[in-house]
Records
---
Amino acid sequence: MPYTRRALAVLWKDLLTERRSKESLNALLFFSLLLLFIFQFALGPDRDRIRVALPGLLWLGLILAGLLGLGRTFVVERDNDCWEGLRLTPGDKSAIYLGKLLGNFTLMLVVEMLLLASFGLFYDVALGPALASLCIVLLLGTVGLAAVGTLFGAMTAQLRARELLFPVLLLPAQVPILLATVSLTEAALLGQPLGEVSHWLKLLAGADVVYVVIGVMTFEFILDA
Amino acid sequence: MIAASSLRKAYGPSVVLHDISLQLAGGECLALLGPNGSGKTTLLRILATLLRPSSGALSIGGVDALRDPGAVRAIIGMVGHGSYVYPDLTAVENLRFWTVMGGGDATHERLIAALQQVELDAAAHDRVRTFSAGMKRRLALARVVLGRARLLLLDEPFTELDQRGRKWLSEFLLAFKAGGGTVVLATHSLGSGLGVADRVAILHGTRLIVDRPCSDLSWEELRKLYDSLTEAQEATA
Amino acid sequence: MTRVLGWLAVCALIMGLVADFGWAPREMTQGNVQRIMYLHVPSILTAYLAFALVLLGSVAYLLSRRASWDHLAASAAEIGVLFTAITIVSGSIWGRPTWGVWWTWDARLTSTAVLLLVYVGYLLLRAMVDEPEARARYAAVVGILGAANIPIVHFSVYWWRALHQPAAMLGPGRAPMPGWMKAVVLVNWIAFTLLFAYFVSRRMQIARLEEQA
């Protein structure tokens, strides 16, 4: 199917570029490690305080990484006039959106896994029993972040005030995702089975669906004249 | 192939193109002349459906380009000022990406053959970051070679090409026309472009003031006309 | 047409003020401060109307590419932000003597604040895009996403509050409203809607003129 081919071509191109230039991934991974220290310094040496705040810190860290990483998602296109080249391609432009979304999702997932692992290590938190639940929350939360981030990243790539506008647009849209993922993470770390907080799961999944659908339907308007 | 009538493009109060109408049949090549800043690129971009005109009608290949730009894009190949290359990918990889995105068949043989045509096969596996401007321009042309375009829109394609490159491009365009393809070539210098053109048009002061078949004009006449216009423009500038 | 709207709005507002201060009796538990509700509730209702219009204008613009839909969306967003701000400020002023704090992370107040943030972001985007056609398209996409997000935000904020703090205090208007109170709110709501319509109409005129300049 040509649609799928094109989406996968975009994904392939992004992964290849990232692997060669290593621009985003290295910086993001290092940034995530830095956050560990920043959070520790901001909240003080009291280990319990950090432990209580842990779910929030985890997702705060991901959102901060997302602001950095996702804002740049279309910059390579802009810098090399490839944006125009993409505009000239025939067919449904939403394939480009999905390809980019998959790439961004992968990138953010890698960052989040590092964040989770290092939190467990540095803040001495037992992740083992909660791991399965945490993974589900991770996946769902990252989809929501990547979906809106890719859409707004495309929009702001062409603007001169990109660094300011991207966070301003992204953060309000992330409020429900943040609330849901933090509540779910909290529940998971307390050992609660996810079934008990299934309303949050449904909200998160529902939000993800809404964001991806809107992204698919409106992406061509961002690209088009 | 192209039927444009009364195209107008204005950015607020400043008018870039005023009442442009032109017709181009399949298998013809139009050379669009004009000094820098005359709106050639704008007109070309409107023809490529990258820009919407402020008013007017445009039909390409029988399709209303303003209502259904997506259908038109499938038959257009554009080589503009930008090179559309990803610097961290090799020439082959760039070509593969754009061919797949254009819906074409991206087998390795076809990609290498296209690179051979533009004499980039030696650098096929080098990263484009290392390419010179001329090489990037040739890569863009390779992309067009692989495409299934019936209309080519070229913006100053002969610049940054050496003598051999220009010869190759002229031959390629002639062959393309012979196969029924249509070409619009924008340039600010009366050089290689005229060798392949069937018609010539001059854009001056936001209007299209000349639009005649090449057979009508002799080279000297054209040269005189064009030079007088450029001088007039420089005088008023 | 706009002028008629303007005069109607003025008349309705005067009637509203009379109803607020002259006709409505002093509320028993909260005293005269409660009268702010006649500003607070109609404001948020008008804001919701505004953001519904933003959604309408955004979708209609993307489908038709007619600039007047974009003008509608932009104007409605500006006035909507104004009314949302009025809602929050009046809620805050009401809260101070009633609960002793200027701000509380109460569900309704919080989700209204998030609403404000979404549409201020919309306006910031518009301010930072120079090219009018691109501006209209981008704003439309943000408008659509913002509107779709509103119900999701509502639920998430309510559940968040429920998890952390059972409803210890009665939020404004949570108690059932007596008939006369509803009537006064209605009068004010009609006045605000007329005022909103007048503002939007004027703002759209300005937008049309700006475009031609």
---
Amino acid sequence: MSEGSASGVPHLPGMEVRPVERNVYEVQIGPSHPGSGHMRIIVELDGDVMVRVDPDIGFVHRTMEKLAEGRDWIKNIPLFERMAILDACNITLPYVEAVEKLLDIEPPERAKYLRALLCEINRIASHLYGIGIFAVFLGHSTIYMWAFGDREVFVQLAEDLTGARLTHSYPVFGGVRRDIPDDFPQNARKAVRYMRYRLDEYAKIYLNNPNIRKRLEDVGVISKTKAAELGIVGPNARASGIKYDVRLVEPYEAYPELDFEIPVFEEGDSLARAWQRVEEIKQSLNIIEQAVDWLEKHPREGFMHDKFWKTAPKLYKDVYEGNIPYAGKYRVKLMPLFATLKVPPGKAAARVEAGRGEIFYYVESDGKDVPYRVRVVTPSFRNVIAFKYVMPGHRLMDLPTIYGSFDYFPPEWDR
Amino acid sequence: MGGGVREVPATAEELQKSLLEALKDYKPQVEPVKGYIDIVVPVEHLVEAAVKLKELGFDHVISVGAVDYIAKKQFKVMYHVTSYLNEDLSKFMVSLSTYISRDNPHCPSLTRVWLSAELQERETYEMFGITFDGHPDLRLLLLTPVVAALKPLRKDFVVKEESDNIETDYEAFESSKWW
Amino acid sequence: MDMVTAAKVFSDIGWGLFHYIIFYPPVYQFIIIPGLVAALAVVVFMIWFERKAAARVQMRYGPLEISPRTGGAPQLIADLIRYTVQELIIPSAADFFAFIVAPNAMLILSLLPMVAVPMTSISEYWPIPMGYSLLVAVALSTLAPIFTVVMAWASNNKFSVLGGVRESFIVVAYELIAVISLLSVVPLLHTFNLVDIVNYQMSGIWLGLLNPIALLDLFIAILMSTSGFPFEIPDSETELVAGPFTEYSGLIYGINMGGGYIRRWAFSVLMTLVFLGGWAPYRPGPGILLGYFVPSLIVVVKATIVMAIMSFLRAVYGRYRLDQALSLAWEVLIPLAFAAFGISVAEAFFGVHP
């Protein structure tokens, strides 16, 4: 903080004054800018080349860590989901896993497959969102419309499964909230076939378009050691050659039994990051097919751990069987035991591969019905440091290319 | 990447043993936690322990967090680290923690060891008021100066809630109207 | 006696109105066709077409709210009315006179080449003597871009200045390409006279077929000059809010946005006359309607088709980076323009004739 180092400038409360070099043109790509989202980037330009980039974040900070200390355990699930609602299952899953470690229960196998299914649907929706926003920063509005239109297919699938389009709150302690409807497998297979066909179209008009390739190639190159030093996560790290995916190194839920690959690219530039997301969508489609096959074959029991299911009133079990004509089959309400849950004291940590990277929760409990401390580190927050170290040296028109290729999402990094 | 750990650790217990062995100069202690390995070192040896961990292969920081134990008048600062480039170690999360006093919280900054800790130390600084000595660019990240002065994530900062009966001062409002 | 005099007076006034005001060539060409009225009508149609065509590619409908049965065609009229009654906000830090004058000057100067081109081969309907009309038209078309830079500087806004600087770089690049491409037909035909150029193309072989490189170069130069995709660099929305047009609101914002299209229209008319045959294969008959009105309509239709192709590229391309666009212009297109000139000279040498 340099209060008083610049003379002659009035210092108002809250104002930060720092001397700027000469011959440097300072531009603030600020919060109310059509291409910036909820953040401000302070760019110092020398001609057309960026000399220093300073991300000024915090415009959507919603104090989730402090709020979590005042709410019951189950109420924190919708709270944390609001960090990135388009990726809702992935964002809340590590919290649920950490609390399950403290409670010392493990969800039944059907619940694990259901969670993995929704995780992959959300991952595809999140990647399509990222592809769309990236394209519109480059001026290519066609892919923006196509990506958001195709994302609608998967949001509809999630609505069939959980009842809500974006804010699912689907994983709960001990299992999931509901089971799949009867016509879900065929809808899922139709969606998978449709998306595979659409990905070819994307490659034709966007990824193999010479205009876009010229814009993306060799821009924002992050080498493997630099990526490991900066701590970049997710598809950005995998596009720089680091073969790291939490689903592989520390498998959770149903992933030990599912068969999939992790695409890794070596170049580390923006084009590799764009291709990485498209390849990951293809792998997620494979996982959805396998999960849906398993769920269809196996009997419908065990979407929730017995410790909670046996306390449910008889009405819930009737609704689940389909005996109540006006209530949908398999749609049960929230277990009443959650409202007064007291978690035994302890500390636990869990991590999960979200759409944008690895998300990490640290949960500490001291025996009460509210958490003592929840520390959450989102993947976009760990990518912010790349703004400061990767961008200098590029031209100003590469700024949206680079931060679009990181799949930035300010509400996620501000929490 | 240095010598790595002596033998490839297959489980968390083996890794814990080899880490305690490697860090034995710095008086480490282990706390019982679930899902990761927690090693507590005193504040004086924090930087050296971090350098030793980096030599063993842990090359980036996942999270820098602090917990406010107001009853014991201590902050616990935790650095969760893991490895990208060393495939055997990337399965495990190790937390390098330390306890610092609550009245004058200072902690040496590990930015020179792990660059990925830079922004997260800034966030911990503004939320708890812990000054990280040696940080190259310690300033506010998410909050405005007015709010950061209250040090929000400390336990003695209680979020003031509004009741349903909000008292309003009608005379003051009426007299302040100029139309 | 009185009725005959009254009828004669009215018919005289009508004839005078027709011949000396409406169809008086400089007035007709600057204001009606291909000037202001035709330009505005085509621009209104073209913006609607662009939005509809791009929307169909993008799996959506485009403008549909205003009158669904005609596909939302009056949408542009509604937008124009909105711009007309919107409040005009002029920042206090901006240079008032330059701020207001620059867009209007740009509009007028963009339409100025239309006075120098012929719309027919009958000599009494030429606005200016046609001896060097190609040269005059090309020279007049280079007057407008300076006012974009004036606009950017007068706005007193960092983003506008960045946009203005980009525009100045691009103007320097594309001017040479456009001028050389348009003038590359001259060695072949030994004339600057646009009427002769069109008459040479009456035989059915258009100059675009004889010299396709010049046609391509001119097409790309038009895209560069009027912020068409993939060269929409000065007002790229996601980096510099709207480039030089950031601080404008109300009617002058409408003029700015339409002014780009009007400039594109002027270039399209030039391109039609030189490369796409003008009013060929129609031979203008005698009289005002057959000799002046109909050939000008044919030119309008052909230029509209050229503009429609340019609008369609919006759905396919992203933006180029500034230095990539400039290196494309200086390293690829200018040698190609010189090559087109050389092809013209070679064709003249070998006696290839349209």
